[in-house]
Fold each of these.
Amino acid sequence: MVRDVESESPRVLIIDDDESMRLTTAAALEHCETYLAESAARAVKLMTEIRFDAVICDMVMPAMTGAELYDSLPVDSVLRHRFLFMTGGGLPVAIQSFLALTAVPILKKPFRVSQLREAVDSLVAS
């Protein structure tokens, strides 16, 4: 279901173990209703309580990686098509293979605010 962006702000979940990255990303998405999670475990809880239009997730986090979080979603979950990864470093071969198989978009840190907004708007419109 596509939300009418003019009548309701898209709900975006931002998952990153770095607090400053969560806050900066949320500030850049002032046109969205943002929710923040410091871990994949917290994100899973929020995803059971709230319907999100897009998920922005750090790829490398302690305990559960972004790829593991994505894989934990039900195969028929609409969020599988509204997921955006971000990462600040080189990616291990296993994660590169995962990205190639899933075709989930990825933003490399540091990214421009315009890149972030464009990526999120594209996900929400899908």
Note: DSSP finds five helices and five strands in the chain.
Amino acid sequence: MAQQRTKKKRNPKNRGNAAGVVTRRSGAKKAGTQLEGKALAAQRREEKLNTPPTWRGSLNRAAIAAAIFALLTVLLFNQNPAGALALAAVMLVIYIPMSYYTDLFFYNRRQRQKQAQ
């Protein structure tokens, strides 16, 4: 005779209701958690805006832009990959200082506005 298992339902941590809203079974959400998260996000954004630009950040941004440019050149304009890579290298050389000095301009402007207040 086969073993008979108990028919106990599993208790999931989260349940959805008819409206699709997921409620928690164990314990209520701490009051103010959402406000604390928003405050933390605002603080991190402020810290990020108050850090001066770096050449490394500009290099990363320029590399991504040049890679997208090369990919689109090959796919949309049917250029050979070698020519697209050469053009992307030229764009990389142009994008790096352009990105850095644009970030520096906005950083300095933000600092002037902050001091004016």
Note: The two ends are 83 Å apart (CA to CA).
